[in-house]
Amino acid sequence: MTRKKTIRDVNWEGKRALVRVDFNVPTNEDGCVGDDTRIRATLPTIDFLRKHGASLVLMSHLGRPAGGPDPRYSLQPVAKRLSQLLDVDVRFPCAVTGPHVEAAAAGLGPGELLLLENTRFDPGETGNDSALSAALARLGDLFVNDAFGSAHRAHASTTGVAAHLPSVAGLLMEKELTYLGEALEEPERPFIAILGGAKVSDKIAVIDQLLQKVDAILIGGGMANTFLAAAGCHMGASLVETEVLDTARSLRSTGDDVIQLPVDLTVADSFSADATSRTVSVTEVPAGWMALDIGAATVAHFANRLAGARTVLWNGPMGVFEFPTFARGTNAVAEMLAGLSQATTIVGGGDSAAAVQQAGLAGRISHVSTGGGASLEFLEGKLLPGVAALDDEEA
Predict the structure, then answer these.
(1) pLDDT tens, 42-101?
(2) CATH code at 128?
(3) What residues act catalytically?
(4) DSSP 3-state assignment of 219?
(5) How far apart are CA 250 and CA 186, in angstroms?
(6) Are residues 205 and 282 in the same domain?
(7) Which is nearest to 101 in space by CA: 34, 18, 210?
(8) Do both 266 and 350 map to the same domain?
């Protein structure tokens, strides 16, 4: 992958940085930020720019407002939380663009910050509207993209503005591209991938790519049910994607010893937190019961395969980890990764990142990605529009 210029390659003294961040965070009914993990993840970039004499205009989307302003999706609580984290005033003009926004941006001094209102309050954002891109570009001297979680979307604030301004990666974007890029291009071996989540269909392209690069793929979660059904196991009432059974068989025959499936499962008589459950062999799922987690023997099997690994990539939970009874497999994988002190461990965003945070183990993982959808597309080998739009590093 071509390396991209970063904020380290720019003299920021007296410059205004237009920074796309990922502040798509949960907010509570009382108007406060529920989880500030993504806000904290951008602080190194913000601190770097402020220390080097830049003023900052920050922009982000939040949620999916229906084509216009909606107070439920305002970034005002985020501006308040960011002010607390930085211990500085973060100006909030209550709009995305307009003369008063341009005046507020022009009035910023070195180290001062302004956060625009939710970019999706302007319908031109998701359509990558050229007029909105140009209006946003007028707010800065250079564009910084630090929102890896939105890099797979060609929107006005992720790719459109890059057509108008010199464009570089922030420190978080750089870290994402370094970890994910090196894992795919030059992994230290053995290189093992752990894939989970509900559906095989969501990850066929990822498995295709990884089969060419890894030493083993350990598969759990709902997607394991489809592979097991393709191998002839009767899966009771478990989620099975019958339309991709042939694809699963084909991937398995290509992967042969590479793809490793569960040997036992925790099954339940209904899809609920308090369902009756027991652990059975994959060949003994009772009629009417459903697999909701991997079993203890599978955890031991996966631990055995992970022993000695030097690069590990994990994307997707091993079961319905929202229910404590069926979170054991996912939590065990999180513990395994945290214990691999000699390996580079990468958690690819989404539910697996949430599981690692929930278990309090994020600090013992080499890299926890902030982008679920973006990391999946990256692993599929796709060129992310938000990355492609950044200026290439000079040879």
Answers:
(1) 999 999 999 999 999 999 999 999 878 998 999 999 999 999 999 999 999 999 999 999
(2) 3.40.50.1260
(3) 38, 199, 350, 373
(4) strand
(5) 27
(6) yes
(7) 18
(8) yes
